[in-house]
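Bench notes, afternoon.
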Amino acid sequence: MKPVLASTWGPTHKKYLSAFLDTCKRNGLDPQNFDDRDWPGGGDYRLIPWYLKSEGQARFVREHASEFTHFLFTDSYDVVFVAGWDEILRKFEALNSPIVFAGECYCWPDINQAGAYPANPHRCRYVNAGMWLATSEAAVPFTQELAQIASKRDKCDQQIVVDMFLSKRHPIVIDSGCSLCFCLNLDSPNYLDMTGPRPRTTDTGEEPCLFHANGGSDLLPICRKIGP
């Protein structure tokens, strides 16, 4: 058994999809497409049918739970990798939880929930659903509930995960130190030291394994840094 990276991409070209696929290949990752339909919405997050993402993740886990030890789900159109499975799994284990979500610096989609998050000294202490990694055992019940709630079609996947995290119904930990994933929203690029061989966070001293543009942030500086 081995881990698996799963994402989704439809036939419509996505801005950084080629960089996603190239950096996956460079780091020995073989991404699987859990839903190859072209979702409607035209890239507008307010119009995207987010329930398709949650349902697709649950379906993929359900169908492949006996084949893989870990499931890593990421966005594809705005994510690039700089490390492979050895480093990813080592850092995952260090976070001491069977479910780890990326962290970001802004409480989205409901800023009013910011005060409900537990105290955390790090800047990126809020849930970001653009990356999550879980053991197969934990992924099965988690995605089942995720898809069940998403089927009501009144919340995006990130809002559902925020609610699940705050309720402590699943052992979700946030990668607030950005050891695994660095989200580039708002002023986050200002917290990167780009002078070394790999981008390093200036506030936590980590070298993230992947970078997520959060839909609209500029990923080109990272792409230029990590090279072809």
